[in-house]
Amino acid sequence: MFVLNVIGKGAAPDIFRGLDNGPATILSPGHAFDLPVANEVAALTEARERAQDFGLDINLVSTVKRRKKLLLSDMDSTIINVECLDELADMAGLKPQIAAITERAMRGELEFEAALTERVGLLKGLKLDALERTYAERVRLNPGAKSLIATMRAHGAHTMLVSGGFGYFTQRVAEAAGFHTERGNTLLDDGTHLTGEVSTPILGREAKVKALEEAVEALKIEFAETLAVGDGANDLAMIQKAGLGVAYHAKPVVAAAADVAIQHNDLTALLYLQGYSDSEIVRSD
Predict the structure, then answer these.
(1) Residue 147 pLDDT
(2) Which residues in the chain land under pLDDT 70?
(3) I need a surface site. Which of 100, 111, 156, 272 has the fewest CB within 10 A?
């Protein structure tokens, strides 16, 4: 069974009168609810047309094994507010050049591993203190990140941060947000400066899928019990593999291919997608 899940300021079941096949379940008054519908695909299309000017996230969500036992999340522009590599580039005075490559890679126009190698190469000679300054001055958790992790952990889920970014940042972000575990790439250095190299194998699109598969096996759960979220092309494979794959404020190629997309709301939306109500959410942000 599927329900129409609606999230956003001013969300009200009355907007969708005539599409419903039963009473709405209110998850957050004036903000989030589930609506049972009869003709699911047609109802989703009609609901999005009705609400196109309302800034609402509207998705069809399965009610089977709805609350997930595993969260696998991207880091840059998903859990945090920036692309760390672009901010490091800013420290080196190369942000426009490197950010342009990042944008093309995230849109799926460039192969991720090659694009990462090229960008890291441009950072050769950057002092290591740029990492600390980037984290301290630029990196912030996105709204809802702590509440998402705290709530899922409180209900027994395992949480993993898996990034094509760098371990220096994934370690710190995972700790700040409350993830159980993290994985990222390793920038190589000579003790004082970056060498312009990244350790291999590079954690990219396929490595994220592998992380999901390994976690499913280790936890002895089904893929239907997993949630994967990200914004870039290198996240798409894990998003499509997971039971609930979410494109979060994502590039168009990702949003178009994912079953579920969040474009207007913060990370607590991932809890409403799983049917959590306000009374069950551990507010930690």
Answers:
(1) 98
(2) none
(3) 156
Distance CA 191, CA 215 (A): 34
Domain limits, the chain: 1-64, 67-81+141-285
Closest by CA to 35, choosing from 60, 57, 10, 56, is: 60
Peptide bond into 201 cis (omega under 30): yes
- Cβ atoms 41, 128 nearer than 8 A: no
- Position 135 scores a pLDDT of 98
Assigned CATH topology for domain 1-64: Alpha-Beta Plaits (3.30.70)
The pair phi, psi for residue 119, each rounded to 5°, is -65, -45
Judged by DSSP in three states, 46 sits in: helix
Supply angle C-alpha 133, 139, 143, rounded to 5.
160
CATH of region 67-81+141-285:
3.40.50.1000
**Cβ atoms within 10 Å of 82's Cβ, excluding its own:** 17
Report pLDDT for 106.
86
pLDDT for position 108: 87
- The residues facing 22 across adjacent strands are none
Alpha-carbon span 88 to 11, nearest angstrom: 39
Tell me the residue ranges of DSSP E strands in the chain: 2-7, 25-28, 32-36, 57-62, 70-73, 158-166, 181-185, 187-189, 194-198, 226-230, 244-248, 260-262
The SS3 call for residue 61 is strand
Distance CA 112, CA 194 (A): 20
pTM exceeds cut of 0.90: yes
- The catalytic residue positions are 74, 76
74 close to 85: Cβ distance less than 8 angstroms: no
